[in-house]
Amino acid sequence: MNLLADNLFAQKLADHSMPLRHTRTEVLQVNVGKLCNLTCIHCHVNAGPKRKEIMTRETIDRVIDWLAETEIPKVDLTGGAPEMIPDFKYLIERLRALTPPRHIMDRCNLTVLLEPGYNDYGPFLARHKVEIIASMPCYSPENVNAQRGEGVFDASIRALQVLNSLGYGIEPQLPLHLIYNPNGAFLPPPQEELERDYKRELKEHFGIVFNNLYTITNLPIARFASWLRNNNQLADYMALLNDAFNPATVEGLMCRNTINVSWTGEVFDCDFNQMLKMHWRESDRPLHLWEIDLVAVENREILTGNHCFGCTAGAGSSCGGALV
């Protein structure tokens, strides 16, 4: 079989008699666009400063009007750098006004909070009690700068210190979590051990505190897939993920309780499927969020591909870190 072409993941699930279906929706994950101030090599979105894809106010309104008719408790904002879309503050304010209240998460690259024009975004997020999940691939400057660009480590440290000064990572209503991505074609180390290292090093050297560390496996799509090809590592990495398949991770996969929506309002099982254009479809056309009956999608079969091995390898990987 061709590890890069055949859907071996679907076969793996069948071999283990483990159908992958949607359960009750707990999270609406909104990818607001590909605009970002960084161009990280592990980015599955191919985000960057020159990208034009951003969510319009009209789409924001349609997404929130649909969400208002549901009781989905969590909204997970991602990108790109979510803060860079022109209507980011409008989006947060509309979400915060919903009844019942929703828990809002912002996937922040940290450095954007120091960019000109964004200096007030940290205080804005704190006022609206938005949970911050921040990219921080290592506690040493060499690894961070290699993965995300020169000077990113120092900027990230300064941004974390600003967030701590606002109460993030300290006050219960202002959680601050960090994300580790491997700096290469290998699996993350054990999450709990790495979290202890992060907390010790960041506290000792920079006075920084945070709540939890999430380890996330790099998926072989978009910019990271290109990096693997350019370094002749794609086939080996796919084999690594396949060999490390762990059936214990399947129950906790984020695609089971999450609906992912793009900046155009189209719907997917996860952000990775979004980048691969694996849409939810009806009559061979992409579905938009506002066309979805939330009850009807329960027990819906989830679309899979070989990239899904990235979420089930080793301890597993999700937007909330390791699964087992």
Molecular structure report:
- With 324 residues, the protein is of the alpha/beta class.
- The chain has one domain (19-232, 255-293): TIM Barrel.
- Helices cover 31% and strands 12% of the residues.
- The protein is built from eleven helices and ten strands.
- The protein has helices at residues 8-15, 57-68, 88-96, 121-127, 141-148, 152-165, 191-206, 222-230, 234-243, 271-275, 309-312; strands at 27-31, 74-78, 103-108, 131-135, 176-180, 212-215, 258-261, 267-268, 281-282, 285-286.
- The strands form two sheets. An eight-stranded mixed beta sheet has the order 6-5-4-3-2-1-7-8.
- A hairpin with a 2-residue loop joins β9 (281-282) and β10.
- α2 (57-68) runs parallel beside α3.
- It is globular and about 50 Å long.
